[in-house]
Amino acid sequence: MASVETQSLYAKHEKIHAREVDGFFSRLRKSAAILLLGVYYVLPWLTWSGRQAVLFDLPARKFYVFGLTMWPQDFIYLSWLLIMAALLLFVSTAVAGRVWCGYACPQTVWTEAFVWLERLTEGRYSKRKKLDKAPWTAEKILRRSAKRIVWLLFAAWTGFTFVGYFTPIDALAARVVSLDLGPWETFWICFYSFATYGNAGHLREQVCKYMCPYARFQSAMFDRDTLIVSYDAGRGEPRGPRKRGAPSSETQLGDCVDCSICVQVCPTGIDIRKGLQYECITCAACVDACDQVMDKMAYPRGLIRYTTQNVLDGKRGRVFRPRTLIYSSLLGLLFAAFLFSLYTRTPLGLDVIRDRNAVYRETQAGDIESVYTLKLLNKSNSPIELALTVSGLPGAELETDPPSPVSVEAGEVSSVVTRVRVPADAAGPGGHDVIFSAGSVSDAALSASHRARFFMPPR
Fold this sequence. Notes:
This protein is of the alpha+beta class.
C-alpha cells in the first residue's frame, strides 16, 4: 500500500525581530511616534476654562474641543472632518505611497512602543532571537515575565486614557484608585487594553498584512509617479559579496553586496529587492540600513531609496499631475470652507415645534391663536439673555412662558412655550409662514431664526 503524504497549505508563522537601525528615516519615525503618543496620553489631562480641554461627553451629548463646544446638531462637522481625512489620505498616498502606515498609523506607533519595551526587557535584536530558541531557564522566565508585565501596564494605561476622552479623566482616575468603576467603564478599559496588547504586542505585522484593508486597495491610488521605497535593480544587480571598496569594474557585480540587512530591519519581514509588495509600509528602515552599508563600502548612497517607477526607468518624475492636483484642490476647498463655517458658526440654536393637538383656536376677542414650543440651545460657554419675536403676518403678537427675555445657561437647552396671536383678517385661510427670532440682548450679532407654519381658519 502506497504511503500517503500530507502537506500543509499554511506556513507556520515565525515571529519577526526587526534589527535595530539608525538613520534619518528611523529618527523621523521615532520622533513621530513620540509626538503622537505624547499628544494621545497628555491631551485628556489638559484643562480649559475649568473643564477638560478635550472631552466627548456622550451622556450629555456635548463635545468639548478646547474653547469649542459641539452638539449633535453639529454632526455635519464630524462628517466634514472624515471627508477631509479621506482626501488627505488619497493625496498622501498618491504622492508618497503608504507614508501614513510607516509614520502615523496607530498600529505602527503602538508597535514601535511595544518593541521598545521588548528591547528594554529582553535585549537587542540578536539577544531576542537567541532567547526565542533558548530553553526555559530562570533568566528566560524572568525576562519574558517582565516583558508581559510592562506590556500589560502600558496597554492598561492606553485603555484608561482612551476612556478618559469620554469620561472626565480626573473622576475616572479617582474611581480606578477606589475600585469604584462602573460596568461600562470597566468593559471599555479592558477591551481597549486587550486590543492594544494583542495588536501591538503579538499580531504586529500580521495586522498590516492580513487585517488592514488599506494594503489591499492602495494600488488603486498608486501610479508610476508615486514615491515608493524601491531597490534600484539596474544599479544593484548582479549582487554578491566582495571586499570593501572594490570597484564594480573589477568584481563584475552590482553595488548590492547581498548582506540581507534590508530584510533584517524590515518590520514586516519582506525583501524590498523583489520589488513593490503590498506588505511594505514605507517606513524606510531598509533605506537607512542600506545607506550605512553603502557608506562602509565607499559606494554612493541610494541603492534603496524613495523614488518612483518612472525615475527608475530613466524617465522624468512628476509630483504635480491630474490626480494630485484634483485631490489637493478638493482638500483645500473643503478645508477653507470648514474654517469659514467654524468662524461664522453661531453659538445659538433655535428649533420650533408646533402644537399638534390644535391647529388653531379662536380667542374671545376674535383673534386666531396657535401654540408653539421653542427649543433654545446655547452652544457657548456663558449664559445669554434672549429676546424672542415673531414676524411674517400683519399684527402678529408673541406671548411667551417664561416671559421674554429668556435666560439660557451655558451649554443648556431651554424650552419656551409661546402663543402667536394674529387678527382674524390678517391673512386668508390656510397655512402661512411665520418667522420666530431669538436675539441676544447684549450682542446684536448673536441671533437665530426659524420658519414655521401658522394656519388660519376657513371663512
